[in-house]
Design a protein that fits this description.
The protein is mainly α and about 160 residues long. It contains nine helices and no strands.
Amino acid sequence: MNKRLNPYTAAPEAVKPLLALEESIKNSGLEYSLIELVKMRASQINGCAFCLHMHSADARKAGESEARLYLLNAWHESALYTPRERAALAWTEALTLLPQTHAPDVDYEEAMRHFSEEEMVKLTLLIGTINTWNRIAVGFRSHHPNDRAPKAVAA
């Protein structure tokens, strides 16, 4: 996979508002663990290796368990997530897969049971923002750091 242009150097002024939005979300009052789970789930759906690498590392540094990260793709079947997290993950999937889901009422209503109106707006902005970051990283082929050198294959 060949890397494409670097959006931060090609158009730094265009990226600044997205960076400001990211900072606003970080300071939104939503739980840090919830923010990272949402970012991870959207990045899984969008196939963004760069973002998955970054957010899994950030989540681990903040104390997130390996089991919750490993099972995130199957959160529907796991009891490791709180009802609030489950509602956020369902809303994340609904908005990330918007052409297929059309943001179903059932997902909206469940999220509204666990989030205030203000938090719901913040959660929705979080989901939109990570989807934008995913499109930038995937579209411009951002490479994640290589934490391990590939092992030589025995002949």
